[in-house]
Design a protein that fits this description.
Blueprint (H helix, E strand, L loop, with lengths): L10 H11 L6 E10 L8 E14 L2 E5 L7 H9 L5 E7 L10 H16 L6 E5 L9 H13 L7 H6 L8 E7 L2 E8 L12 E8 L3 H14 L15 E10 L4 H21 L7 E9 L2 H12 L2 H8 L5 H15 L9 E4 L2 E5 L2 E2 L3 H13 L26 E6 L5 E8 L3 H8 L4
Parallel strand pairs: 4-5, 8-9, 10-14
Antiparallel strand pairs: 1-2, 2-4, 3-9, 6-7, 7-8, 10-15, 11-12, 11-14, 12-13
Helix pairs in contact: 2-3, 3-4, 6-7, 8-10
Length: 438
Amino acid sequence: MSSTHLTFDSRQAHRAHLVAHAALPRGFRVGTTRFSFIPAEAPKPANMTLTLIALHRPTTAFGAVFTRNAFPGAPVIIGRQRLHEATLAAVIINNKISNVCAPDGVANAERVCAAVAQQLGCKAAEVLPSSTGVIGWRQPIESMLAALPDAVAGLSAESALPAAEGIMTTDLYPKVRAVSVAGGRIVGIAKGAGMIEPDMATMLVYLLTDLVVPRDHLRAMLARVADATFNRISVDGDTSTSDTVAMLSSGLQPCPDLGAFEFALSQLCGDLAEDVVRNGEGVRHVIRATVRGAPDEALARGAARAIVNSPLFKSAIAGNDPNVGRLVAAVGKYLGARATGLDLSRTRILLGGRVILDGGIFRLDHATEDALVAYLASTELYASVPGADGTFKPPIDYPPHERAVELVVDLGVGAAESTVVGADLTHEYVSENADYRS
């Protein structure tokens, strides 16, 4: 993940940054349309956006990784089948309703793909569907089909930003990252704010490039990069039923160095994954937990994940309270269950670069406690203030900075390490999810 921490003093400054990076790679167009409907399960007005990503011509170079949730959405079921197709021409995405375990879910998703194919002049099997939003509701299929021509009519080769905005649900702002490599570009957009603890993917991510990357190489790279980035984040410890990371190449620019391409892709996905955490529901602190000196990478990753998923530690960080006892308890719980007998006498822990535990002994005093409180406050994205109705909602809709709570746990018993990026647990998160459907 990037070592450069950007800052934005206004929504306009952040927006300008997104616009500057959102130029589409050659060979792609995006279009969106928005319509109102009444959900069958909740008789009140709702809005849905259809987002279409279309290639100028079908490509053989595409791949995707999906959730391992045992109740996948209909688009994931279809998406796995699409990986066996020779070519892909488009991706159609809807927000608001995720089409999971819904009546006729697979059939309706295929109807949408067929309608897209008819509009674009390609095969239905060349269209990849994606859906995100409320789980269990039925899609307004007739309204979706009626609105689709407007998305096709609006296709433009200029910017990925409309697509990044179109796939949002509870996201506060769109997420776009881009990188130039070998004379071409990779542009990524992501949707994700809650139900984030990926298993092979994260909510919805689309990676577009004009560089020639052979299909087998593209899929192998995507699997490696997703595991090293999107599989190293967590907002709330819940794995979505709809997680999808898809990558498509228009193949218009030769790529002389696939190693350089994978390195650039990894950087982009690392930044995009961290964007998902930073824009998580109610997130006020991003937590970057690194566990090193472990006997193997799996143990290091598990211990780091245990830290960012500890409700007690997450709550302490939300309050700018350096309650490091909760941190040690979280690490100890995980290691006690999975590494019985491990010698932790050389363990060393740093918070914000400051040693708080050395040789298994806390190194705390009044000055250290005060410094840690100030450090946590400096990494806070915004201050928590209840609204007039007593609920807590973020007062801003852009990221003022990209700082994180930096945490290092060195177990001193090996050479393996892993970093997991997580978030605090706030009033805003509870308010958002208590009122999600109402």
